[in-house]
Recover the amino acids of this structure.
């Protein structure tokens, strides 16, 4: 029998992990072992921290089972409806009570925006890994994380999750608890909301970004010069010129009759 593709490092010994390894929930048919599971140490972290908590994850699979098994009031948001069915069946077959589990199929930006923004203790981001989905998941769900609550970002070896990880690592409002290489966890260490403008984000994302920023300086200078030249030639700044330009109708259908 295929085993779930999780690290074989020592684990807590909870029979749940042995069950998952022996009989992986085949939620993702395209995965070699039937499930694109988080690594075992990540599942163990969830197991150790989620007991009895209010939790939310994007994605569905072995992690959903672990959240459910420790009686978290857990919500999983995932793309394919069959994933939820597979996980629910696995739980029933292995004696995991699903009374506290809510399975929501749909794309996470739409689903997360539609559900009530009640406080949560743990947010696990492991849905679509393409930019900007990890950022959207964070944007829509992280404001719900209580003070001292935890955000886990999975697959930080990939560019989309990595940029979220790097950003949080430098943000003083989020304290890095663990950087495990493939995933990381942060504690919400301060009050915050989404009204932050760029000027109050004084941290650079990382050293390389500073270099990239400097490397773009010639392009910015050229743009500044171009804008200045244009303004001089026209005699007015472009935004002044716009106010003198007669408004064009959007299309022939929306054109209003000429009042003159
Ligand atoms: C790597 S798997 C999650 C694995 C799971 N955390 C585990 O430990 O077994 C990625 C998940 O992202 C979900 N996903 C992909 N695109 C999504 C989207 N746009 N919205 C929500 N979930 C999405 C898939 O349905 C899949 O469950």
């Amino acid at each position: 029998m295929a085993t779930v593709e999780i690290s074989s490092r020592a684990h807590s010994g909870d029979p749940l992990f042995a069950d998952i390894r022996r009989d992986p929930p085949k939620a993702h048919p395209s995965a070699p072992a039937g499930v694109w599971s988080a690594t075992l140490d990540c599942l163990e972290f969830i197991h150790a921290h989620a007991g009895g908590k209010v939790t939310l994850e994007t994605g569905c699979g072995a992690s959903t089972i672990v959240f459910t098994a420790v009686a978290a009031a857990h919500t999983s948001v995932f793309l394919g409806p069959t994933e939820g069915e597979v996980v629910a069946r696995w739980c029933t077959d292995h004696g995991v009570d699903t009374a506290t589990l809510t399975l929501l199929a749909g794309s996470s930006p739409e689903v997360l925006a539609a559900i009530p923004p009640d406080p949560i203790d743990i947010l696990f981001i492991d849905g679509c890994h393409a930019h900007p989905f990890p950022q959207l998941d964070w944007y829509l769900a992280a404001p719900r994380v209580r003070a001292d609550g935890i955000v886990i970002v999975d697959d930080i070896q990939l560019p989309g999750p990595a940029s979220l990880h790097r950003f949080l690592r430098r943000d003083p409002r989020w304290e890095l608890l663990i950087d495990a290489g493939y995933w990381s966890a942060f504690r919400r260490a301060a009050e915050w909301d989404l009204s932050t403008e760029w000027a109050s984000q004084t941290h650079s994302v990382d050293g390389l970004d500073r270099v990239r920023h400097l490397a773009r300086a010639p392009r910015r200078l050229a743009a500044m010069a171009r804008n200045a030249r244009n303004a001089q030639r026209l005699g007015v700044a472009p935004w002044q010129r716009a106010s003198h330009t007669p408004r064009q109708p959007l299309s022939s259908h929306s054109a209003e009759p000429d009042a003159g």
Observations:
- The longest strand covers residues 145-154.
